[in-house]
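User:
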Amino acid sequence: MPLRILFLLCLGTFVALSASASTPRVELEFQKFTLPNGLEVILHVDHRLPLVAVNLWYHVGPANETAGRTGFAHLFEHLMFEGSKHIGSKAHFRYLESAGASDINGSTDFDRTNYFETLPSNQLELALWLESDRMGYLLDGLDAEKVANQRDVVRNERRQRYENAPYGLVQEAVWHELFPASHPYHADIIGSHADVEAAGLDDVREFSREYYTPNNASLTIAGDIDPSAARRLVEKYFGSIPPGPPVAKPVVQTPAISAERRVVVADQIALPRVYYAWITPPAFKPGDAEADLAAQVLGGGRSSRLYQRLVHDLELAQDVSVQNESLQFGSVFTISATAKPGVKLEDLERALDSELDRFRRDGPSAAELAGARNTLETRLLRGLERLGGVADALNRYNQYLGDPGYLPRDLARYDAVSTAAIERLAATRLAPQNRIVVEGVPGKKVIDDPPRSAVPAALVAGQPDGRMPDEPWRTQVPPAGPMPTFRLPTPQRFVLPNGMSVILAQDHSLPIVSASVVALAGTNVNPVDRPGLAAFDAAMLQEGTTRRSAAAVADAAAEVGANLATRSNHDATFVNLTVIKTSLRPAMDLLSDVVRHPRFDTEAVERVRKLRDGRLTQRQRESVQVSLGVLLSALYGSEQPEGYPDDGTRPGNAAVTTTELRNFWSTHFTPRSSALLLAGDLTPAEARTFATKYFGDWRADVAPAAPPTRVEFEPGMRILLVDQAGAPQSTIRVGIPGVARSTPDYVPIEVMNDVYGGLFSSRLNTNLRETHGYTYGANSIFHYGSEPGYFGSATQVRSDVTVPALVELLKEQARMRTDPPTPAELTLAEGAFSQSLAALFETPESLSSALAELYLYDLPSDYYGSLAAKAQAVSAEEVQALAVRLLGTESMKVVIVGDRKKLEPALQAAGLPPVIVDTEGKAVQ
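Assistant: Predicted structure:
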């Protein structure tokens, strides 16, 4: 594997190469020690950016839950953000966001729960103060009201992910059928409504004392650190927390499936879908790597067997995917395939079975195995681009194997797999008699959603854990360390003789390069009777060139371990791939071929048209997508391209001709209206060489297209209601005319939005989620473009609180115009913006996104270096003035997608009469 060997040799300080081994070994350097209380600590040094990732794993998840308490580990994860003794109620996010943290969250998997944050390295002590306080003092700050609030939040999350999402209940049925009710993997991680609602404060206390202890946790710190100083801080903040009782590892028997089991689940979906699932070997056990590779060969992308056969050749499937989810007590190998409009599920299953029979009989080819191995190993190593990914990998290896440094052996286990081994796995573990089959069909869904219980008038307060001594020094917020020196990269630009712009951002920390071509044509240049034309054109770029078939394009990307992606947005069309530098030459050849020589074969156009029609059909059942389409139509009207989603409409999709697609490309994909963006491990000389070789002889006789006309917004406030009968949740979207990206007020507008709805700690999310428990989350964002975009806020709430939630949203929006941000709010928003800028440059792909912004909006090369100072200069008065100017209600549009029978009377009663519209935004009787 010379490609992989060269990659390993290039990793520099990020990894160490074992010179004594006969084969090169890639290793993540780390130090590991254990505190006297049992806390395992893993340190990894990486000075490429002034950032640090803190990642704390508790070895507890649904695998440790008892009957009647499904979802409890996940509920407890939510409660960990509610505030502990010395931190203050719901203050965890506020501290981290104001410090410029770019990645804050927690997650629960079947076998573990983790908490993580990536923040400026001079704020490491802040993160350790926060994590240690909730490990030792969580129960002092928890009361029955907070538990009830987070029960509501979690149940809203469940509705959002399962009951109100197409195929959500179908996916959940897969796990119910694979594992018996007594198995910890039977119920979904989020649990049932009934079990979550039954959880009380005493359950929380017992769970915390049993599992949330230092001897049941591992802490990883990765990034710009001094290991000795980091160790002293860990000992200071975690050393005095006493250990809990020994935690026994769960003993779980996973029964084998010896006869096929089938079930049909009705759901509010547009197209039927089938799931096949098997239980495969546990994580990191013999056979696990074979299952990963088999999944990649069968359904790992456009070059995979099932995609090529079911989607491309037979045109039976709208989509197909395969994954192997590695878990401690048995992994889950799943194939899902959605039938195209007009295709019967039994016909799709027959073709799927035929291809699986061939795979069991013949296994993969050597070329398929090589491509799958290359893709998986590249994906594994690219996961280490972000410090959070490094920290998580170290913790994962430590939990499952007791060895944070398992990475070289992880790579080696894929190298050791043969085609015969995959064939044996397919024939034995993936046999028809060992599977479950779940068919999702259109129909009335059955939801078990009991009402919330009343919160008692006499609320039970928090109480000390009983384990922890009182340590008053913890009340002091740790001061930030010295500000790290870091200069945001200044991209270099040059123009090829043919007029094509080239922009380079260097990052030599990893031998990875992201290459993108950006053409100045997107939704903004679509004819109004052809919405979605730009997106259709972008999709066609992967469907064959003058010297490569569509399959050959997919194979060429797979051979170099690249994910070739094409897309369009309001202002541009993008073609991107990211590869290891040693594969850059063939990757650039592919990128150039796709951009410069698309085939636009009529047969391929019709095949893609059908796929797009199926996707647009599915979208009509997705409340989030429906609400977006209706909002755009209401804001811009039907006579402007901005009045439609980027993917367009079914009539527009049907009307596009092959000639129009070819003309769109020839008009807008020209050297003078395109840019080549290169980010990563390239020197300026190398960038010029690659750009000249692959794009220097590109010629186009077409003059650049004229810029689109200025957009106009529909006047007047309107409330639009789309009926989704029986929906357990309502999706609410609010839109207001906005500004262009060129506005001189960009930075203060972003600060204003962070105060209102751009952060977890914003006014909007705090109100709807943390105070009222109406939603899993609420947010707002300014959508910019070359022309004025719009300001949008959105949330999903349970049906019975739709009107109160909307009232609160409008109240918070109005409060932005009347109440300037407090000093604390302003400090938080300014810090969140200015201190998080380094994270924009953590990976080549994020660098590429920054370059695209410079090109699309004609921003200076040193633009990003000026943003921090501008953010810190924003005043409360400036924020309020912008809110008065931009957050008015004169042209505001409100879209609600939900159960009309429940919502229309309530909206009328609240003085918010709606107009009833269909999924395209057209008024109905």
